[in-house]
Design brief:
The chain is α/β, with parallel strands linked by helices. It has one domain (21-340): Metal-dependent hydrolases (TIM Barrel). It is 44% helix and 13% strand. The protein has helices at 5-8, 14-18, 34-42, 62-75, 79-95, 117-133, 151-168, 191-199, 215-222, 245-252, 260-265, 277-282, 301-311, 316-325, 334-347, and strands at 21-27, 98-105, 139-147, 173-179, 203-208, 228-231, 256-258, 287-289. The chain has an 8-stranded parallel sheet with strand order 1-2-3-4-5-6-7-8. The radius of gyration is 19 Å and the shape is globular. It starts with a helix and ends in a 7-residue tail after the last helix.
Length: 354
């Protein structure tokens, strides 16, 4: 078997686990830990799933990782599964020092179990509510995801659902995510429904330029413009007519969510030290470190910060600053941001090494 992660990886530095953090790019189903997977599989003996994952965690292709979601969907096909998964994922993030979390997930109906898109969303919201009642030190919000595979008609349905929950949930449903297999469909087809959502007050976090060759759709979707960009892996390498995509993103100061392990493991980035985080951080662009799918990629947000710090030579003070500035990029209100800034100031260890 490949070398255990802890041997291959730098030793865990407790500084990063203890540092308060914001997680803004976490897919609920991809964040399921192996401990939760075991519980789910035990509840579904009839599926005869061999324990574990169908993909080698060290090194798969993007396509294999999308296949893995199909397995996960099979074992999370009832609202009680969704509730359990939501609570476990929130607790694991809280245990890793995450103080504010925006979870994203596509509302999913399952004919066989009677789960509808609406009851799916309600189960996620119930998981958030119960975690809060258990006094976990984490503020959790929900971004409703539009899966590219569903096409624009499903996107319009999701936007309607999101608008409704946006109004009824006291700011828990704050926005939309556009995600799913980047090779499927045309991003341009989602412009209208997303624009509609934006006009209704929802925020937009869109996966953009995750693979090469998507300049046209990226250009179109940047016209919305989105409130944050997921990955943006090929943005600064896009040669195109007109102002470069890099210039557009920099001009609008659209924060980018960086997921180092996810990109290296799914081979859209050759190595940690060549991750595009280095480019954007180097030009002082709003940059947020995230996990993407902590379950599938077997990672934690503290580990992603440590990898960023070690590969791009960030001091403790710079890593802290990166975490503190990510508060600016959250979708919750100015009041919530102010509270989080106070919390960071209270938790700051002194003096940090430069």
């Amino acid at each position: 078997p490949p070398m255990a992660d802890e041997e291959r990886q730098p030793r865990r530095d407790p500084f990063y686990s203890e540092m308060p953090k914001v997680e803004l790019h976490a897919h609920l189903n991809g964040s399921i830990s192996s401990a939760t997977m075991k519980k789910l599989i035990a509840l579904k003996p009839h599926l005869k799933i061999q324990d574990g994952m169908p993909v080698d965690k060290e090194d798969g292709t993007l396509e294999e990782y999308f296949r893995m979601f199909q397995l996960i969907h099979q074992i999370t096909n009832r609202t009680e599964d969704v509730l359990m998964v939501t609570k476990d994922v929130i607790k694991e993030f809280a245990d890793d020092g995450v103080k504010y979390l925006e979870l994203r997930s596509t509302p999913r109906g399952e004919i066989t179990t009677g789960m509808t898109k609406r009851t799916y969303v309600e189960a996620v919201l119930e998981g958030i509510k119960q975690s809060k009642e258990e006094n976990l030190d984490i503020d959790v919000r929900y971004l409703m995801a539009v899966d590219r595979r569903g096409g624009p008609a499903v996107a319009r349905e999701t936007v309607k659902l999101a608008e409704e929950f946006f109004l009824s949930t006291d700011d828990t449903v704050l926005g939309l995510d556009l995600s799913g297999d980047p090779t499927v469909g045309h991003g341009e087809d989602f412009f209208e429904p997303l624009l509609q959502a934006k006009k209704a007050g929802l925020k937009l976090a869109l996966h953009l330029a995750e693979i090469p060759g998507l300049e046209k759709e990226t250009q179109v979707l940047l016209g919305l413009p989105p409130d944050r960009i997921g990955h943006g892996t090929f943005l600064h390498r896009c040669a195109g007519a007109g102002p470069s995509l890099t210039e557009l993103v920099r001009r609008h100061r659209i924060p980018i969510e960086f997921c180092l392990t996810s990109n290296v493991r799914s081979r859209t980035v050759p190595s940690y030290d060549r991750h595009h985080f280095g480019f954007w951080y180097g030009v002082a662009h709003p940059s947020v470190i995230c996990t993407d799918d902590k379950g599938i990629f077997d990672t934690r947000l503290s580990r992603e910060y440590q990898l960023a710090a070690e590969n791009f030579r960030l001091s403790q003070a710079q890593a802290w600053d990166l975490s503190y500035k990510s508060i600016d990029c959250i979708f919750a209100s100015g009041g919530v941001k102010a509270e989080l800034r106070k919390k960071w100031s209270r938790l700051k260890p002194g003096p940090l090494s430069d």
